[in-house]
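>> Question from a student workshop board

For tomorrow's exercise we were told to take the sequence and the ligand below, predict the bound structure, and bring the output to class. My setup keeps failing. Could a helper post the expected result so I can at least see what it should look like? The ligand is zinc ion.
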Amino acid sequence: MKRSLPLIALLAVLAACATVRTTQPGVVGVDREQTMIASAAAVNRQAGDAYRQTLQQAQKQGKLNRDPAQVARVRAIADRLIAATRSFRADAPAWQWEVNVLTAKDVNAWCMPGGKIAVYTGLLEKIRPTDDELAAVIGHEIAHALREHGREKAGQAMGVGMAAAIGGALVGSRYGIDPSLGENVLGTVGDLAFMRPNSREMEQEADRIGVELAARAGYDPYAAIGLWEKMRQVSDGGPPQWLSTHPSHATRIGDLKTSADRVAPLYRPGTPRR
Ligand SMILES: [Zn+2]
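>> Workshop helper replied:
Here is what the output should look like for this input. Compare the format with yours to find the bug.
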């Protein structure tokens, strides 16, 4: 009787989870259906807490928004992209967006679930992006949030945890071993499979939507190509494609070009089109 509890819990989770369309497909045609288990509210609340802590720590260390001109530039570009998000989801422009610049060597930028954005000075200083290129990076990161990739991965981890618990109980009952041991082993496999940064598919979706957001916000959609060329040059090649969650460079550039061709008619330099 006790062993059936995880199964009941799993059924409850499956009943609660839903196949959703987080975004409209846009001109670039991103239309993969997603299965969500974690609630958006819970994921966004946790992301908001993590963001707040990150900012507080940076503030204490004197690493938050050091250069007002730099912050103003990043926010101006992000604001135009955020206004363009309505093409993919009607609710997105009203999210509690935040945009901050962190002093750090890493060539990095991210957007947490719910619209909490950070751009690192390492990216600004090592890549020296044009406004169009910076729009490409921020647009890519915003696209991850619009697609709720973080929530999707959280749900996958929850699903694997649940399956591992059941698998552990089954393995334990069959072989007479401690169920918690089986649970641990399977839990590790689950971590390897799902606790990865982003799938290649998610990266491709972010690339495509990012290019369209840039074009709609009045930024050159082809700038994404030059941007990722520069990113590759500073990253010393990176791991081979089969080891990486990122698509190979050639695959990525080809896909960005295709997307830029599609959204080119939307692009008027410096003029947002919503
Ligand atoms: Zn990405």
